[in-house]
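Sharing a chain and its predicted structure for anyone who wants a worked example. Both blocks are below, sequence first, tokens second.
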Amino acid sequence: MAAKAGRPGEGLESRVEGFNERAREAVKDERLRSAVAVHSKNTIRNRNAALSALPDAPELRERAYRIKQETMANLDRHLERMASAVEKRGGKVFFANDGEEAVRYIGELARRRGAKIITKSKSMATEEIELNRRLQEEYPELGLEIVETDLGEWIAQLAGEAPSHIVAPILHMSRHRAAEVLSEEAGHPLPPNVEDLVSFARERLRQKFLSADIGITGANFGVAETGTVVTATNEGNEGLVASVPSVHVAVMGIEKVVPRLEDLAVFLRLLARSATGQKMTVYTDFVSGPKGEDEPDGPEEFHLVLLDNGRSSLLGGEFEEALYCIRCGACLNVCPVYRQTGGHAYGSTYSGPIGAVITPLLKGDEEAKDLPHASSLCGACWEACPVGIPLHELLLRLRRRQAETGISGRAQRLAFDAFEFGMRRPGLYGIGAKAARGVQGPLLRDGVARSLPGPLKGWAESREIPHLAEKSFRELWREGGI
């Protein structure tokens, strides 16, 4: 089976309207919900244990926030310093304003090098700009074969699907489904057990590692003072992608830079613990340029593509904190909405609470207007975030911006105006509560409502709504019952 470059719902260039419709279908998928629930439960347990064993975790979280705050205040200076350090080591740096410029730079590089096979390690930035699809569509004459080498990403690529989680790309897929996909690639049936599937993938991908002309990686961090690109992985494929081909291209969002090596130590202690509950990922690679004259291995050329793609427009504004994200996925695991819908419902590279914030900021409110409402605003995402990004507050600001610009619609504004009017008037609130208690009878079955009429229908589609008490707290208080 040929690897598929373009995948439905992939990237910020794809359309993301229709979250509500996709979410409605996702909550009916019991297998998906079960898989997400098991992953979330295990990951949260491991994360809590790992952070509990780190006595200074709260201080590290506060320090990480301050480092990001300081970095964004002087981002241009830090990026220039990093670019200078990379170039001093013989590397080349390209500042890409958007995905189109990044694709053009890498496409022309592939043309100049006569590349045919490109290996890639997991990279959210390249998913964001749909690098695979665009390289193959915009440079068809090159006949590029682009191969994802992270196991989950490779299976998703073969299946023509987008990753559904920042850290666990095929969280939505059972091992039986993964076996089906790899069996088609193998040309013969493979048993649905992890050892056999991994063995097949290792054998098949090894051929690609050895024959690749260009290796493309992402970057978890970039250190300004040394010009070092840092990646954290568990499979070791990133090291092969970065060192075996004669050309290595690292694509890094501009917000990933940290000023100093000592800052990097803060984030590395938090990243793996927050993502998977590990103290550290199995492999942490540091790349600072092409191989030197006296070095036996490594790429002949090293290119660092610093991707803006709308990020700089957030600097200094009320949404700047969205740039503090280190892509650990912790907010997804604790989000009650993500845990019911999975990642594909969001229709974008970035799902969960951070995706509900980032996607409207980078794509625009109109197209992603459903996403800021994909939250219960419980604040669990903020509590889980290792950098302390107040995601629930950012979602509220996006909702307010929708209301101020008229995107939220007249009906919604009238409904919330009416809600505010009632909540500000205790007498009116009491009358409304009594009226609701009076009409709830026909909706109740065994003391709960399993369906509600009109615009309230969605509230009871996947949950049971308990009945309203016969008397309110205020009434019981006045009667001396409390």
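Comments welcome. The longest helix spans residues 30-52.
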